[in-house]
Amino acid sequence: MALPTAEQIEICWGERRVTAELTRTVRRALRIDVRPTGEVTVFAPVGEGIEEIRTRAHRKGAWIFAQIDTIAQRPKVTPERRYISGETHLLLGRQYRLSVEESGDPHVRIDSGRMVMAARAPEDQPHCRRLLQAFYRLRAREVLRQRFDIVLEPFVRRGLRRPSLVIRPMAKRWGSYTPSGRVVLNIDLVRASPRLIDYVICHELSHAFYPDHGDGWRALLETVMPDWEERKEALEAALR
């Protein structure tokens, strides 16, 4: 289990600098994540000296700043949500136009290409937001478990014992593989297409064999999902 701290480190590459969040973990490998927001997190072993961490992170400098530059070039595709009729919302990679109507039976449903929100108070934005969140939560539990069962098969054939699956909100990540052997998936993934959901699951299951993003991890991911890099780019562009 990760041991969160308030540590930060500066990663330098040529003239460029970025301040990264430093999280201590019981894993021995150092791992670096560049989030879809462009923020950088370094996961380093408990007890490793800060200078050694800086040195190891510096070796990844070219990759880190290439990721940051790619993210910066993408336009923002999701405007601020107001939960009113006419705006669009994603579900499984498809855009649905929202139709808000008053009803004593609050719920959200898909109807002929529309996302219909039946709300007690259509003008109450927090109420409408909670309705949509509940809808996404229910669909996420159904869809993500289905995709997990499908993607898991080639990893089981490689000797992996079935991990437990946790589906919950995550502020800054699409998923994680914990040292205790659990796969955690972000509820918000239900907005992505199944093809992109599968990439996240495959990414995290590969960490069951290789905790970092090194050559072994990449080789396994490329064997199981040869187009994983294309899917990664598509996911970060679609849900940014």
Percent strand: 25-35%
CATH architecture of the largest domain: 2-Layer Sandwich
Largest beta sheet: strand ordering: 1-2-4-3
Structural class, from secondary structure content? alpha/beta
- N to C succession of SSEs: EEEEHHEEEEHEEEHHH
Shape: globular
Write down the domain tally. Answer: 2
- Low-confidence runs: 1-5
Average pLDDT for all residues: 89
Major sheet description = 4 strands, mixed
Q: State the helix count.
A: 6
Q: Do you know the CATH topology of the largest domain?
A: Zincin-like
- Radius of gyration, CA atoms, in whole angstroms: 20 Å
Distance between the termini: 28 Å
Helix content: 25-40%
The CATH class of the largest domain: Alpha Beta
Provide the descriptors you would attach to this structure in a database record.
240 residues, 6 helices, 4-stranded mixed beta sheet, Zincin-like, alpha/beta, single chain
